[in-house]
Recover the amino acids of this structure.
């Protein structure tokens, strides 16, 4: 009983457990990277995409090789494995939601509006809740579509 | 957002296309390429022999066959039948939860997660093109790897049907937006239209009088299926008057 109670209390603050101590702020601050250097589809495609380990190793074959988390990254690389990142944002399958990144980038909506200040985060943390209400709220404000078929098909 | 409107009308508002399809029955050979293409495109699972025998097979598009004359002087005619996207659709008013409606572009839309599975719509459809999902769909590996991510998988307990490949309409619009141009006639091709080797099917905006589909509809050869019911379908069938 107590265990269940503890779980219920703990759930709302639980973050996705990532296999590796990745840091967004290190890459945007120190490495001066842009979001789209890694999430290449975020402005032009449906899905932003999570970068492949090949991209990480372009730099990390040479950079910060001794950092313990980079050593672990290299271990995945040696075994020819991708890093099994846990998903942070997303909808359950039954909701039949078809999200598209490109039209939002075209409408000049900043990543931060939907994902929070990721540039100051280590691994991504879900800071913005997306419900049908929040989607449609902004759509109505901006005269974007509120036809069910815009998001469900 | 005022700038960059697609195909502005004279009053500056955005042009809303009116989707329609024309199917030339004199060209259709009944090859069923459209049926296969549709199932692959829209993640429509096969039902299996047993379920099919119980009338539970799903085909968003099917070929109806008509036989004329006696063997050996027999003539076969084919008619591809899909959701007719009626302007006056019998399926819509019977849904107690508004899971099916006609949108501004004339598509008859089915919102799966809104659907509670009463099946009233399927019962009321004179074209029998709506299908109930009795079971959650399954694909034997490796077929599950070829599912189309642009089309949601329908869970058990809802009704599904042809969407006029609404996801392709959306894709064409997003592509046009990305290239800063208007949608052109022929940019949108549903899977059935694309796969038809006889080019019997044409899809497009019938509010544009220059579109291929408008010309087919106005050709004098067009008719609508069961038009006497007053359903006002968006699918037009073409054939030489006999």
């Amino acid at each position: 009983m107590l265990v269940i109670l503890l779980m219920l209390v703990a759930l709302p603050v639980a973050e996705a457990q990532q296999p590796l101590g990745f840091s967004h702020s290190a890459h945007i601050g120190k490495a001066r990277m842009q979001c789209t250097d890694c999430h290449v589809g975020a402005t032009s495609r449906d899905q932003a995409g999570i970068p492949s380990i090949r991209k990480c190793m372009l730099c990390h074959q040479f950079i910060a090789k001794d950092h313990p988390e980079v050593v672990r990254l290299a271990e995945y690389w040696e075994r020819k494995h991708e890093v099994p990142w846990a998903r942070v944002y997303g909808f359950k399958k039954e909701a039949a939601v078809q999200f598209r990144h490109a039209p939002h980038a075209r409408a000049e909506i900043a990543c931060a509006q939907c994902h929070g200040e990721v540039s100051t985060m280590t691994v991504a943390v879900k800071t913005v809740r997306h419900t049908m209400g929040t989607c449609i709220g902004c759509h109505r404000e901006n005269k974007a579509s509120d036809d069910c078929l815009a998001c469900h098909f | 957002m005022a700038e960059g409107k697609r195909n502005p009308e004279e009053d500056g508002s955005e042009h809303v296309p009116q989707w329609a399809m024309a199917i030339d029955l004199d060209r259709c050979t009944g090859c069923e390429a459209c049926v296969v293409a549709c199932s692959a495109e829209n993640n429509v699972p096969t039902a299996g022999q047993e379920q099919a025998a119980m009338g539970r097979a799903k085909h968003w598009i099917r070929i109806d066959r008509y036989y004329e004359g006696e063997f050996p002087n027999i003539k076969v005619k084919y008619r591809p039948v899909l959701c007719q996207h009626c302007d006056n659709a019998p399926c819509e008013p019977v849904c107690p939860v508004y899971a099916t409606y006609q949108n501004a572009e004339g598509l008859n839309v089915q919102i799966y997660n809104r659907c509670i599975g009463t099946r009233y719509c399927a019962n009321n459809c004179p074209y029998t093109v709506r299908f109930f999902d009795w079971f959650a769909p399954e694909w034997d590996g490796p077929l599950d790897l070829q599912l189309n991510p642009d089309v949601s998988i329908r869970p058990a307990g809802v009704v599904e049907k042809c969407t006029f490949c609404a996801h392709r309409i959306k894709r064409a619009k997003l592509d046009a937006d990305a290239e800063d141009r208007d949608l052109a006639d022929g940019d949108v091709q549903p899977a059935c239209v694309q796969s038809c080797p006889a080019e019997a099917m044409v899809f497009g905006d019938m509010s544009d009088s220059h579109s291929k589909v408008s010309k087919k509809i106005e050709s004098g050869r067009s008719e609508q299926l069961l038009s006497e019911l007053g359903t006002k379908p968006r699918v037009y069938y073409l054939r030489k008057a006999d």
